[in-house]
Amino acid sequence: MKAIFGLGNPGRDYYNTRHNLGYMVVDFCAKEKNIKFKNKINFSAKIANTLIEDEEVIFVKPQTFMNNSGLCIKKILEGYKLLNKDILVICDDLNLDFGFIRFKEKGSSGGHNGLESIIEVIGKEFNRLRIGISKSKDIDFKDYVLSKFSLDEEKKLPIILDIAKKATFDWIRCGIKYVMTNYNNKFIN
Fold first, then answer.
1. What pLDDT, in 10s, does the model give residues 57-73?
2. Catalytic site residue 19?
3. Is 73 helix (H, G, I), strand (E, B) or coil?
């Protein structure tokens, strides 16, 4: 079994913001598989289940807000009896240029509060897919990550989401080494 976590903030106020890029990717994956998310209060999450090449997979949107993502992930790991190697966390990344994606097996939070929350709860060793949103020179990063995409970014977003979806399915099928080799440091535009 595998679990794919798309990080974001619940609620309409955060819909289509840069910080909800993880939610957007898992929504794209669920749409591809024609599955619906169900609210699972005991896991503090919305979860969609499917099979991919005989592997049971759950797509998860934590409902704990970004800064407390680790609480949901811990509940899922314990409830489904998963190991850290069985999960993929998808999130935005200020330190990557818009249009770049990067897989990692472990590491620091890079200043990302959602990743920091997860690291505090389960440690640094878990798979992650980081999607670049760039930095703003004019807007404080806290306001920037909660802002909507620019019109130019919105035009490119479907391509980025589609590649991230494909990369996520490749991680499920082929593992972290494969996706690191085939997707890291490639510009999506």
1. 999 999 999 999 999 99
2. yes
3. helix
